[in-house]
Design goal:
This protein is an alpha+beta fold. It has helices at 2-10, 19-41, 46-49; strands at residues 57-59, 67-75, 78-87, 90-96, 103-109, 121-128, 142-154, 160-180, 186-199, 202-209, 213-221, 226-231, 234-235.
C-alpha cells in the first residue's frame, strides 16, 4: 500500500483588396458572432460549468506546467469523459459521466522512471452508489454533500480496498475570471462556478468553467496559509 501511495503522489492553448471579398468575409463571420453573442447573454446555470468539451487542450500555470486534455472514453462499460493530466511522464485520468457533474472514478498509469509501464493502468478507483454528483441548477450559497464510496484496485499489489468519505460543499455563486494563458493570450471565462469545501485540515476553493472543467483551485491550511494552488493561466 505504501508503494501505491508513492506512485499516486508522483502521479488542468490578408487582408483582401477587393470590397466584394470583404463583404463575403463579413457575411461568413455573422453566424459565429451571433453564436458568441448568444453565449455571452445566456442566463447563468451551474450545469454549464461542469460541461466538458471533447478534445479541448490547455496547460496549467503550476510549476510543472501540467498538460490537460479532455477525451471520450469507456469506463466500466459506459460512455464517459476523461480529464487527462500529464506531466513529466506521470498520467492521471479523472473520469466523469457525459454531463460532467458525476464523478465515476480515476485511472493512474505506470511511471517509466519507476519501472512501470506508462501505457498501462496500475491503479484504478471506481465510485460506488450513491455516486458523487454535483446537483443540477445550483443557487448561490446552496450547500450540498458529496459522498465517495471508493473501490481501489491496484495492479502493483494485486489488492483491492474500500474507503468512504463525505464532504459538504457550498456553491458560492457565479464569477467572471480573466487570465493570460501560457501563450500570453487573454482568456475570459464568464459565469464560472465557485465551490467552497471544508476539508480535514483546511479549506478548498474551486472554480469550474464551461468546456474546461476545473480551471482554478486554492487549497489552504487551517491557519489560512496557501498550501497548494493552480490555475489555467495568470489571473488578471
Amino acid at each position: 500500500m505504501k508503494k501505491d501511495i508513492l506512485l499516486v503522489s508522483f502521479l488542468s492553448l490578408i487582408c483582401t483588396a477587393c470590397s466584394n471579398n470583404n463583404q463575403v468575409k463579413n457575411d461568413a463571420q455573422k453566424p459565429e458572432n451571433t453564436t458568441s453573442a448568444a453565449k455571452e447573454n445566456k442566463v447563468a446555470n451551474s450545469d454549464d460549468c461542469f460541461k466538458l468539451d471533447i478534445n479541448k487542450k490547455y496547460t496549467l500555470n503550476d510549476s510543472d506546467q501540467t498538460n490537460v486534455q479532455i477525451l471520450p472514453v469507456t469506463f466500466n462499460n459506459q460512455k464517459a469523459i476523461a480529464v487527462v493530466r500529464q506531466v513529466e511522464g506521470v498520467r492521471h485520468d479523472q473520469i466523469y459521466d457525459l454531463t460532467g457533474r458525476t464523478e465515476l472514478g480515476s485511472l493512474d498509469y505506470g511511471i517509466a522512471a519507476l519501472g512501470t509501464d506508462p501505457n498501462s493502468v496500475i491503479i484504478s478507483t471506481t465510485n460506488q452508489d450513491p455516486l458523487p454528483q454535483y446537483p443540477s441548477n445550483l443557487k448561490p450559497n446552496q450547500k450540498f454533500k458529496l459522498t465517495y464510496n471508493i473501490i481501489t484496485d491496484s495492479a502493483v499489489s494485486g489488492e483491492k480496498s474500500e474507503s468512504s468519505n463525505t464532504v459538504e460543499t457550498e456553491f458560492k455563486g457565479f464569477e467572471n475570471l480573466n487570465f493570460l494563458d501560457n501563450e500570453n493570450k487573454p482568456l475570459a471565462l464568464k459565469n464560472t462556478c465557485h465551490l467552497f469545501t471544508k476539508v480535514e485540515d483546511g479549506t478548498l476553493d474551486e472554480w469550474f468553467a464551461e468546456g474546461y472543467g476545473r480551471v482554478k483551485f486554492i487549497r489552504k491550511m487551517e491557519n489560512g496559509d496557501i498550501f497548494m494552488s493552480e490555475a489555467i493561466g495568470t489571473e488578471q
